[in-house]
Structures are given as C-alpha cells and as structure tokens.
Amino acid sequence: MSTPITVQYKINAPAEKIWKALTDKNEMKSWYFDIQDFALETGKEFNFYEPGGENKYHHQGEILEIIPNQKLKHTWSYPDFSALKTIVTWELLPEDGQTLVKLTHENIENFKDLGDGFSRDNFTQGWNTILGQSLKEYLEK
C-alpha cells in the first residue's frame, strides 16, 4: 500500500468561501484551471488542460463524493497516457475563524511508469503551489 500525498494550508477565509472557489467553474479559472465542463454533481466527469495553450496533458476527473462546505472527492487521470486513476480529496476544516484546507492525493504510484512529469515529487510541488500560493492568495486578497 502506498502513502498518499497530503498537502494542507490554513487559509484566512470561511469554509463557504473556499468551497465556492473549489466548486464554481468561474472562480476556479481565477486560481486553478479553466474547467468548462465542471458540474458539482456526483458521477459527473470533467476535463481540462494545463494553462498555457499547449494542451499537452488531458486531465480527466469524475466526482465521487460531495459534502457541501466540507469535502470534495474526485478521480484524477490522464486518459491519453494511462487507464489508471488516482483519487484527490479536498477537505475543509474550520479552525479559529480560519479554514484548514487539506488535500490528499491517493494512488499516485499508478502514474509511476509515465515519466518524471508524473512523479510523486512533481505532484507534491504542484499541489503546494496550487494550495499554498494560488488558492491562498486568491482567497486572502
């Protein structure tokens, strides 16, 4: 069994505001990715490419679990490279007027044969940038 990647940051914003940033596709494109087909509904698939216009990596997810203002769980995969999937869970934990945002990325070893761009270190660095900089700065501005 593998160890999941866990990244967490305390953000000076209420859970409701963070939830909206995580689940509203218009807000997402300000700090995350432009996910045109995102719909907050269990079983719905969504697709996106990294920014920059290269369209190098097709990302695909399927929403597995929704607990409003608390938890969003979805698959994370690259259908052009592998049939295997990983699981990303976003959890919002209110703490002293702030919110601890905890992201867990499970089964990352499913991508181990895809090259350096899919390494554990690369994902850890990416999630730290997304949470610790992009989301935090977007919500605390």
Characterization of the model:
- The chain is an alpha+beta fold and 141 residues long.
- The chain has a single domain (5-140), classed as Alpha-D-Glucose-1,6-Bisphosphate, Chain A, domain 4.
- 26% of the residues lie in helices and 35% in strands.
- The chain has three helices and six strands.
- A six-stranded antiparallel sheet has the order 1-6-5-4-3-2, with helices on one face.
- A hairpin with a 2-residue loop joins strand 5 (85-95) and strand 6.
- Helix 1 (15-23) packs across helix 2.
- The longest helix has 21 residues, at 120-140.
- The termini are far apart.
- 15% of the residues are buried.
General shape: globular
For the biggest sheet, the summary is: 6 strands, antiparallel
User: Unreliable runs, pLDDT <50, ≥5 residues?
Assistant: none
CATH architecture: 2-Layer Sandwich
The helix/strand series, from N terminus to C terminus, equals EHHEEEEEH
Can you give me a brief rundown of this structure?
This protein is an alpha+beta fold. It contains three helices and six strands; from the N terminus they run βααβββββα.
Key attributes of the depicted protein:
141 residues; alpha+beta; Alpha-D-Glucose-1,6-Bisphosphate, Chain A, domain 4; 6-stranded antiparallel β-sheet
What is the fold's blueprint, element by element?
Elements (H helix, E strand, L loop, with lengths): L4 E7 L3 H9 L1 H7 L13 E5 L8 E10 L3 E7 L7 E11 L2 E9 L13 H21 L1
Antiparallel strand pairs: 1-6, 2-3, 3-4, 4-5, 5-6
Helix pairs in contact: 1-2
